[in-house]
Each structure stands twice: as C-alpha cells, then as structure tokens.
Q: What sequence folds into this?
C-alpha cells in the first residue's frame, strides 16, 4: 500500500511528532510510506532518515517538481495532518486519480462547505473529540465519515533509566533532596496553560511546605504574573524555558513526583500526559468539558492519576498523590499508555480501515463509526459523573451546543463580530 503523509512541518510540536511517528510506522508495516513537508521546521528529519523514508521538502522552486513526482507515484492513501483550503488545491489532482484522502482533525472542528467533501475519513484524536465532531456532522451525505485515531506514541523512546535523576534535578534547581516535586511541561502558548495553576500552588503550599513546582515552557504573560507572586510562594517555583529531546524529557518526568496539568483549551490528545505516564509519573489534570478534553481519556480518573473538576478538587487530588504516591505503579502507568497508543496497538487496525476505504467498503467503516460513538458516549457520561449533580446540567448544555444548528449559529455570529 502506498501512503503519503502530508504535513506543514516536522519540527517541534504534537502534530509534527504524530505525523512522523505514523509515517515511520507505515514504513515498518511494509507500506511504501513517504512524507511531503509543505513548510519549515525539520527537527524530526533524522527519525525519518533512520528508516529510509522518502521525503519531499517544499520550496518555491521544488513544489511543482514534488507534485509531479507524487502524482506519477499515485499514492493509495493520503494522510493529512491538519486540513485547510490551501491543501485542498494540492489534493484536487490526486483526488481525480482516485487517491483516498484522510485527515487527522486535530481539534475536531466540523466544516459544512463543499471544499471539505474532498476528505473521505476524518480522524479524531480521542473519544471526546469524536463525540463532539460526530454530534455536529453525523453521517451527512458527501461529507467525511468520522473515526477515532489517537496519536501514535513511541513508548520505547521513554524507557531510559536515570539512577541519579531525582537527586540531580533537585541539586540543579536548588531544591531540597527530600522535597516533593510537581512538574509541568507545555508549549509556551497562553492557551496551553491556565493562570489558575498559581491558585493551586498557593493552596497546596498552605498545607505542605515541602512541595516545589517546576514549570517548563511557562508563557510570557504568566511569567509576568509569577514575578508578582508573594515571596513565600515564588520561592517554591522553578522555571525552565525548554527541554530538548526525548532523553532529557524522560529524565525530567522520572525525576518529579507528579505531573500537574491545567490548560484553558484542554487537550485534543496530550503527548505530555502520555509521556509522563510512560515514565511512571502519575498525572493530576483539570477537566475542560466545553473545550478539548482528551485528558480524561488519556489519564483516566484513579487510573493514571486524577481528573479534577475545579481548582479546589485539583488541590485535593494533588495532595492525595502526595500522601499516597505508591497507589500508582510505574509499570501499570507505562502499560496504560503502551497498550492503547503504541505502534502495536494502532497500526494494523488503521491499515484495515485503509483497505476498506480502498475497497469502497463503506458498510464496514459506518459500522466502525457507530461502535466508536457508543464508546464515546459512555466516556462522556462517565466524565459527567465526576461533577455529580452539576453533571446533569453540563450534559444537557453539551448536547445543546453540539448540534449543527447551534454550531452554525455561533460561527455566523463570530463572523459578524
């Protein structure tokens, strides 16, 4: 099977990591796997070179030549990581050749225009995103069929052992040897963080004086707020701008006691959550039901840590980990991710989808979509139970908001504003 991955960048970031991971996995599965990179950012090029993957890098002079060679090659499947109107222009001649086109819809955003009909299957990264997208799009004639395809995680990249890691991190950051460290890694984008993390820090420190917080990638505006924190709080926080490479990330995850996660926009998947768990580090995360909310699925309440519903609940559950960290076995946390998101777990079922798509076996794909929605509905219902009585109201609001009429009305209003 010939599979072309189409992506803007193979630099830093979750989408870029996922695109490279799947491209390599296709190759290892025996497919003729190639990748077309439309923009800048080549940080992950070495991973592709290591598996002898054919790469097409676009520039103003190379675009036409790349396009001609790819048309002559004629892929069976084109896997796009983030679709837009510009990519549509590239895809049209390939679609006319009979190529099947699938997208990873990173934020599970629906589209109701004619351009979008070029997509055959829209993959959502988590059951939460699938539920939202499916409620909006359903099985409308001519539009993409929706399925779930999580990001592929290379578990083996996070298995290095660092006997002195905990001691070294504390020494390097001037933190007492016996301190309990709550760490967070995130892109330095304001939306990927939440200022309420400082409220949680203050509340925890009012109860436990031996807790320290290490934030990696804190955005500029939150750094400004950090500078104005009370001295007693500020002295328990350490900031790191960036951690480079999977080995260094592994050492960090394995040197802290808990990974703390708050994001204003939630997570459409959350590589950092999966990575922390692979390294045996439990996670405390804040639920975001009106945004992306894959953290509930990836972490699992009382499985990979705790999913909280408010800052107060977040603090309570963080202190639970402080008191009972041994409740979470590193081996169990590793298995939780490896069994669901590894190459072994994802690639063969995905190739089965591709074969059905190439064979025009729509009945198989529709049945798979329907069974996926049944699971997604159960997961949404389970999450609402965390909110107790409030969950009934939230569920009702979610049902109303995730209808095509309401989505189109809100989108239209935003345009006017």
A:
């Amino acid at each position: 099977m010939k599979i072309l991955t189409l992506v803007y960048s193979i630099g830093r970031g979750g989408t870029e990591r996922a695109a490279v991971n799947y491209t390599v996995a296709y190759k290892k599965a025996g497919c003729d796997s190639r990748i077309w990179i439309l923009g800048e950012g080549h940080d992950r090029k070495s991973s592709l070179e290591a598996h002898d993957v054919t790469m097409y890098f676009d520039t103003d002079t190379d675009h036409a030549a790349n396009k001609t060679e790819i048309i002559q090659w004629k892929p069976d499947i084109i896997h796009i990581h983030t679709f837009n109107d510009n990519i549509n222009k590239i895809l049209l001649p390939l679609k006319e050749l009979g190529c099947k086109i699938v997208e990873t819809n990173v934020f599970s955003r629906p589209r109701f225009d004619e351009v979008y009909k070029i997509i055959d299957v829209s993959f959502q990264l988590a059951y939460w995103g699938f539920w939202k997208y499916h409620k909006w799009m359903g099985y409308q004639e001519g539009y993409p069929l929706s399925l779930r395809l999580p990001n592929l995680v290379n578990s083996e990249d996070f298995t290095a052992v660092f006997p002195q890691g905990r001691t070294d991190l504390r020494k390097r950051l001037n933190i007492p040897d016996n301190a309990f460290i709550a760490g967070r890694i995130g892109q330095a984008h304001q939306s990927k963080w939440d200022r309420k993390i400082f409220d949680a820090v203050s509340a925890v420190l009012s109860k436990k004086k031996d807790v320290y917080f290490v934030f990696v990638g804190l955005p500029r505006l939150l750094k400004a707020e950090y500078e104005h924190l009370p001295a007693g709080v500020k002295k328990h926080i350490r900031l790191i701008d960036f951690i480079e490479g999977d080995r260094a990330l592994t050492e960090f995850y394995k040197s802290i006691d808990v990974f703390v996660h708050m994001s204003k926009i939630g997570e459409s998947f959350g590589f950092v959550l999966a990575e922390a768990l692979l390294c045996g580090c439990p996670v405390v995360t804040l639920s975001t039901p009106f945004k992306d909310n894959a953290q509930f699925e990836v972490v699992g309440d009382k499985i990979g840590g705790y999913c909280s519903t408010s800052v107060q609940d977040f603090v309570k559950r963080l202190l639970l980990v402080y008191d009972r960290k041994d409740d979470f076995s590193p081996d169990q946390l590793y298995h939780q991710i490896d069994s669901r998101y590894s190459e072994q777990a994802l690639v063969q079922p995905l190739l089965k989808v591709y074969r059905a798509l190439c064979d025009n076996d729509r009945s198989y794909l529709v049945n798979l979509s329907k069974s996926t929605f049944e699971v997604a509905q159960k997961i949404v219902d389970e999450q609402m139970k965390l909110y107790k009585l409030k969950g009934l109201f939230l569920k009702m609001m979610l049902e109303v908001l995730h209808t095509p009429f309401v989505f189109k009305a809100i989108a239209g209003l935003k345009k006017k504003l």
